[in-house]
Write a structure and sequence with these properties.
binds N,N,N-trimethyl-histidine, metal-binding, 9 helices, alpha+beta, 4-stranded mixed sheet, single chain, Four Helix Bundle (Hemerythrin (Met), subunit A), binds fe (iii) ion, paralog of FGE (formylglycine-generating enzyme), 2 domains, iron, about 475 residues
């Protein structure tokens, strides 16, 4: 391995709910909480419908890549999870379709095999998810949103809305892999307005509160809040741009063994990788395919569709390393003025279009410097939105982790096979992104909307040490 992996989590962790600010959802009346929850579920459904109505039936049942499910599988799987948790478990109602549980169990059937299953067809899948939704809304109306962990502050409903949005992002990735003319359209993201940003910011040494014990819809792997000591480090102010990444490519970075870990080198050799996925060199410049549009690679946008291995190699080439997950979260949440951890880089308010490029409002990352209102307390830009950011950390449980409500959401994935990604992308909905949210994937994956930024240890004499 060429990059340096340090264990920054040296302090004995202890649970520190007092290190966080209280959450606004907890202050809503039960009726307002129901209305809010229904709205979030409806927003997810509008997106699922857009992504599936954008193509014809042939396209819905077809597999666009071995890495992905047919879109019609995602759609019915969304309904199936909603039936299991909201209709059957929370509502205690009879199953609608016990016969299809197995088909939509992600653990029974790997993605590559899903097209050969006797799946619900497009119109059956559409009526199934609509029927489940009607029942789920009825359950929402009748369920007290307190008491039981599963229903307190509408947790299960929030979990299911996040699940649907996660699959909506997966469906967006399937669209990106799909061949043919563009079928999805969205306005361009805002231009860069913050100019001449410093290359790096410095985060001083000290403890901070990582994870959460107060965010009502946080998933099990984000819990509990605990104190982590992080050494001083420097972090790139913004994600690595296409222009900077192209320097690495054009410098022969993909062919230089020095920059790659052992696993990274064999991966890049086996797959013959020479540039980010969807890039092509033509007429002496870089072009890319983006949702069916062939266009020059925009220099100022964060690079996207790179694997962990490529991110790690770039960082080594640049004389840096990837941040650990704790470093990323401290840069995103820690407020030196209060000593507390915020919900988001900009504070505790839910994301708006001014804060971050989220929610599939734009079908691409925004140029660096486009979200000055989203800056974190320590000065990092665009930590949330635009591109998921690879960290050097394996996906492991926090001290005190308890699987909830099912082991298959997080626990079965813990270990060294997966790397953690943070911050969400232009394809992630705000309900499924926060300062504590943890995503994970194999280090070879690059169909996801992932980029990265670099970090480095501070040298004596660097400002802030
Ligand atoms: C958290 C994005 C890794 O898509 O595999 C969806 C989320 N879990 N259905 C995934 C998830 C169950 C998960 N990730
Ligand atoms: Fe799922």
């Amino acid at each position: 391995m060429t990059s340096v992996h340090r264990d920054v989590e040296t302090a004995t962790p202890r649970e520190t709910a007092e290190g966080e600010t209280p959450h606004p959802l907890g202050e809503l009346s039960e009726q307002d909480l129901r209305a809010h929850t229904a709205e979030v579920l409806e927003r997810a459904r509008r997106r699922s419908v857009e992504l599936t109505d954008a193509v014809g039936d042939d396209d819905l049942v077809k597999q666009h890549s071995k890495l992905m499910s047919p879109l019609v599988w995602d759609l019915a799987h969304i309904g199936s999870q909603e039936e299991l948790w909201l209709v059957r478990d929370v509502g205690g109602r009879d199953p609608l379709r016990p016969d299809i549980d197995d088909l939509y169990d992600a653990f029974q059937h790997p993605r590559a095999t899903r097209p050969s299953l006797p799946l619900l067809g497009p119109s059956e899948a559409r009526s199934y998810v609509a029927e489940v939704r009607n029942k789920a809304f009825d359950v929402l109306e009748r369920t007290p949103l307190r008491g039981r962990d599963l229903t307190r502050t509408a947790f299960a409903f929030g979990m299911i809305a996040q699940h649907e949005q996660q699959h909506d992002e997966t469906m967006l990735a399937t669209h990106q892999l799909r061949k043919g003319d563009p079928v999805l359209h969205a306005p361009a993201p805002p231009p860069a307005t913050a100019r001449h940003l410093p290359e790096e910011i410095v985060v001083p040494a000290g403890p901070f509160t990582m994870g959460t014990s107060v965010e009502p819809w946080a998933l099990d792997n984000e819990r509990p809040a605990h104190e982590v000591f992080v050494e001083a480090f420097a972090l790139d102010t913004t994600p690595v741009t296409n222009a900077r990444y192209a320097e690495f490519v054009d410098d022969g970075g993909y062919g230089d063994r020095r920059w790659w870990s052992e696993g990274g080198w064999s991966y890049r050799s086996e797959y013959g990788i020479t540039a980010p996925r969807f890039w092509r060199r033509e007429d002496g410049r870089w072009w890319r395919l983006r949702f069916g549009v062939y266009e020059p690679v925009p220099p100022d946008e964060p690079v996207v569709h790179v694997s962990y291995h490529e991110a790690e190699a770039f960082a080594a080439w640049a004389g840096k390393r990837l941040p650990t997950e704790a470093e990323w979260e401290k840069a995103a949440r820690y407020d030196p003025a209060t000593g507390r951890s915020r919900r988001y880089p900009w504070g505790d308010d839910d994301p708006t279009p001014e804060h971050a490029n989220l929610g599939q409002r734009h079908l691409r990352p925004a140029p660096v410097g486009a979200y000055p209102k989203g800056v974190s307390a320590v000065g990092a830009h665009q930590l949330v939105g635009d591109v998921w950011e690879w960290t050097s950390s394996d996906f492991t449980p926090y001290p005190g982790f308890v699987a909830f409500p099912y082991r298959e959401y997080s626990e079965v994935f813990f270990g060294s096979e997966y790397k953690v990604l943070r911050g969400g992308s232009f394809g992630s909905d705000p309900v499924a992104v926060r300062g504590t949210f943890r995503n994970w994937d194999y280090p070879i994956r690059r169909q996801i909307f992932a980029g990265f930024r670099c970090a480095r240890d501070l040298r004596p004499g660097d400002a802030g040490v």
